[in-house]
Recover the amino acids of this structure.
């Protein structure tokens, strides 16, 4: 039983795009260790219903494979340590209130204050209302 089977297992019934992408990345990392499970990858890939989602799964697999190879290029590194670093690494979540605005890494202050980048309220838009003469 490989690292992928221990962490994820293969007895899932349905996957959304995020779960499939995560599994594909993990399969790529496992493949870099020589633990490729072709049937599991094809099942995850086939679970996606759009070409975009399928391409994301393929991309995640390739990214996991490449990062797994880069983390242990000579094979001397402990596979479980590389797995822990790449697959089970710390998940970063960003609170919406803490999104950067202004400064070097955020939106410029002028754009941040500009309300045109937000969706307009349909009740406030007169231009999209039906003309009065058509209501008669």
């Amino acid at each position: 039983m490989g690292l992928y089977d221990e962490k994820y297992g293969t007895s899932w019934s349905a996957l959304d795009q995020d779960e499939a992408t995560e599994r594909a990345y993990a399969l790529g990392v496992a493949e870099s260790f020589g633990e490729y499970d072709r049937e599991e990858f094809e099942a995850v890939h086939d679970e996606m219903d759009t070409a975009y989602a399928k391409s994301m799964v393929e991309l995640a697999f390739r990214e996991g494979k490449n990062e797994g190879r880069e983390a242990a290029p000579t094979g001397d590194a402990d596979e479980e340590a590389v797995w822990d670093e790449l697959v089970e690494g710390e998940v970063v979540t960003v609170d919406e209130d803490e999104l950067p605005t202004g400064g070097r890494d955020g939106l410029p202050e002028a754009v941040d204050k500009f309300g045109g980048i937000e969706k307009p309220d349909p009740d406030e838009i007169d231009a999209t209302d039906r003309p009065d003469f058509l209501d008669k």
The two ends are 73 Å apart (CA to CA). Residues 100 and 106 are 5 Å apart (CA to CA). The first helix runs from residue 3 to 7.
